[in-house]
């Protein structure tokens, strides 16, 4: 069925906005929030938090501020502009209008992309937060938003902040954009280092990592910690190059923070490798306040850990240098179908869809999809693929869908772009920022899908298992070049190298939901984890799109690399200044990460 290009792009834009959160949109169920387990005090085994007698005095904060390039920040929840409702303290109309705008949220130190991390749940189930829905009649409270921090614009700002936090034994969090399904950049009563304004970008056609030789020279782009992927892509385009990076509404995810430290997936990973396979140097401030460089030749153990060992555990990233790739033509293809008879049609369609993933990834295709027993939507993209090659790869599946549904007019699309920039601008770059991805209470459960689980007779078992869950999504962001990389080359969970997709389910809840509702969704997400385990390589998953309630986070996030990561952590951060939820070493701490066990 032929459709003109403009119509296809319009449909694709709608598809892109829906696919990442298809389970959320289809299921309309709820999700959990961070659990509270008590506060810090001046005890030597505990971190100092706001409200404790150990908290620095205003004079001490004034002294800190005098040595910084910017005044200290006092983060507040983004809905605070609407309180008190009878006489709002700020421009409530802006907050209401832009509530789901990812760039607006990223520009505020007190805003998080998912609002559950702006709240705090006490042991008794009560929630402290500040809701945009003022009709709930609830007070506006600080929740898990840190009350004070440093707006870091220079290396010296970060060094001063780290040393201050260490000297006063503060609970420390590092935040850029607040894109994080584990809430690692939030912390009730914590001290924040906000790296969002470290926006430098530098292209070098012959970059040599520190300690390397001329034979290591490669085109590369160095991105400051505050650079977001939209800005990074623009910087690369100015030099006629492209980067393997994140794709989201507004391109607001940070390029040099949690994304890369968690592995860094992309639709282009099957062709070029994950973010960790493309990073060639880091600069960061260590727990002692020292400026360090990590590359294959300088601090190579730290370089290994930073590539997949998890965000917020190793220091404050100042910059990351990535390989800058040649611009190549690409092809995008996809479909959006309704399954008219779920009982007889869903299983054969989804089985073949699952089987498609090893083939697609091996040929360099990546993309995103979501399905239930009544619908399937997906799109994929691949660089340097001819029209004939694209049709040969994907057309058999399209034909099967038409045959099974007995509908010759099933809408599919395939069309070329001159390069990455043209594709990005026509698709993700033109999607409304006020989409479904941010501004709500959202959590995930996920597992990587093993190649074996998507092959042969196992594929039908996998399809049946996923259909039993109701609504799931699959990110086709591994296999191919990801599988060809040496599992020991980075700190990333080795399970990634045996996977062909990331499967996840989504839970959400409305503002002001009762503890019982939140707990029910939490239990469902934990149940989903167990249901997904049989399809995964040794229970592995992507820590950046995972659950706070993993039965064994060390196994799921780090696999066999955990012990080595723990040793590197001890070397560079022996006092555990940098501790985050389900991060390396966090098992030694309580749920609030304020006191050691």
From TrEMBL:
SUPFAM superfamilies for this protein: FAD-binding/transporter-associated domain-like
Taxonomic superkingdom: Eukaryota
Gene3D superfamilies, sorted: 3.30.465.10
Keyword Oxidoreductase: yes
Endpoints of the signal sequence: 1-27
Family annotation (InterPro entries): BBE, FAD-bd_PCMH, FAD-bd_PCMH-like_sf, FAD-bd_PCMH_sub2, FAD-linked_Oxidoreductases_BP, Oxid_FAD_bind_N
UniProt keyword list: Oxidoreductase, Signal
Transmembrane segments: none
GO molecular function, one term: oxidoreductase activity
Domain spans labelled FAD-binding PCMH-type: 142-327
Pfam families assigned: BBE, FAD_binding_4
Entry's family note: Belongs to the oxygen-dependent FAD-linked oxidoreductase family.
PANTHER family, alphabetized: FAD BINDING DOMAIN PROTEIN (AFU_ORTHOLOGUE AFUA_6G12070)-RELATED, GULONOLACTONE OXIDASE
Name of the protein in question: FAD-binding PCMH-type domain-containing protein
Source organism of the structure: Leucocoprinus leucothites
């Amino acid at each position: 069925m032929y459709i003109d290009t403009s119509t296809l792009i319009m449909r694709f834009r709608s598809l892109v906005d829906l696919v990442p959160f298809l389970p959320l949109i289809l299921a309309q169920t709820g999700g959990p929030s961070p659990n509270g387990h008590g506060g810090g005090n001046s005890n030597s085994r505990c971190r100092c938090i706001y409200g404790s007698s150990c908290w620095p005095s205003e004079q001490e904060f004034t002294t800190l501020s005098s040595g910084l390039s910017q005044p200290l920040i006092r983060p507040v929840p983004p809905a605070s502009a609407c309180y008190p409702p009878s006489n709002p303290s700020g421009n409530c109309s802006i907050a209401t209008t832009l509530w789901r705008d990812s760039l607006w949220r990223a520009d505020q130190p007190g805003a998080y992309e998912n609002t559950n991390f702006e709240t705090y749940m006490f042991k008794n189930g009560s929630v402290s937060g500040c809701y945009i829905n003022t009709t709930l009649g609830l007070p506006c409270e600080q929740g898990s938003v840190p009350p004070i921090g440093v707006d870091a614009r220079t290396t010296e700002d970060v060094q001063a902040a780290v040393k201050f936090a260490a000297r006063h034994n503060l609970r420390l969090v590092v935040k850029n954009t607040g894109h994080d399904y584990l809430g690692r950049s939030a912390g009730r009563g914590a001290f924040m280092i906000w790296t969002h304004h470290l926006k430098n970008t530098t292209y070098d056609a012959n970059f040599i990592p520190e300690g390397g030789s001329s034979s290591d020279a490669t085109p590369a782009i160095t991105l400051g910690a505050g650079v977001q992927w939209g800005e990074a892509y623009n910087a690369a385009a100015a030099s006629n190059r492209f980067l393997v990076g994140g794709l989201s509404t507004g391109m607001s995810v940070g390029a040099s923070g949690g994304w890369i430290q968690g592995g860094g997936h992309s639709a282009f990973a099957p062709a070029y490798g994950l973010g960790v396979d493309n990073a060639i140097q880091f600069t960061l401030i260590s727990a002692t306040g020292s400026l360090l460089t990590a590359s294959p030749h300088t601090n190579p153990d730290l370089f290994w850990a930073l590539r997949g060992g998890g965000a917020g555990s190793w220091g404050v990233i100042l910059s990351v240098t990535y390989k800058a790739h040649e611009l190549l033509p690409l092809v995008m293809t996809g479909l959006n179908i309704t399954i008219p008879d779920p009982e007889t049609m869903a299983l054969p369609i989804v089985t073949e869809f699952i089987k498609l993933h090893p083939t697609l990834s091996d040929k360099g295709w990546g993309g995103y999809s979501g399905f239930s027993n009544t619908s399937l939507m997906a799109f994929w993209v691949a660089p340097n693929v001819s029209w004939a090659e694209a049709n040969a790869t994907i057309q058999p599946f399209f034909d099967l869908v038409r045959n099974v549904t007995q509908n010759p007019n099933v809408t599919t699309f395939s069309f070329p772009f001159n390069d990455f920039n043209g594709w990005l601008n026509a698709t993700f770059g033109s999607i409304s920022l006020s989409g479904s991805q941010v501004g709500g209470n959202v959590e995930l459960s996920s597992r990587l899908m093993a190649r074996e689980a998507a092959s042969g007779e196992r594929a039908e078992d996998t399809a049946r298992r996923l259909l039993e869950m109701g609504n799931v999504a699959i990110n086709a962001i591994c296999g191919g070049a990801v599988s060809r990389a040496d599992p020991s080359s980075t700190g990333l969970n080795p399970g990634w190298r045996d996977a062909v997709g990331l499967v996840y389910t989504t839970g959400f809840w409305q503002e002001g939901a009762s503890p019982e509702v939140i707990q029910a969704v939490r239990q469902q997400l934990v149940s989903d984890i167990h249901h997904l385990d049989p399809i995964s390589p040794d229970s592995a998953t992507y820590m950046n799109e995972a659950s706070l309630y993993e039965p064994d986070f060390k196994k799921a996030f780090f696999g066999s690399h955990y012990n080595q990561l723990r040793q590197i952590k001890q070397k560079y951060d022996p006092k555990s200044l940098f501790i985050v939820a389900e991060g390396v070493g966090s098992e030694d701490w309580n749920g609030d990460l304020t006191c050691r066990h």
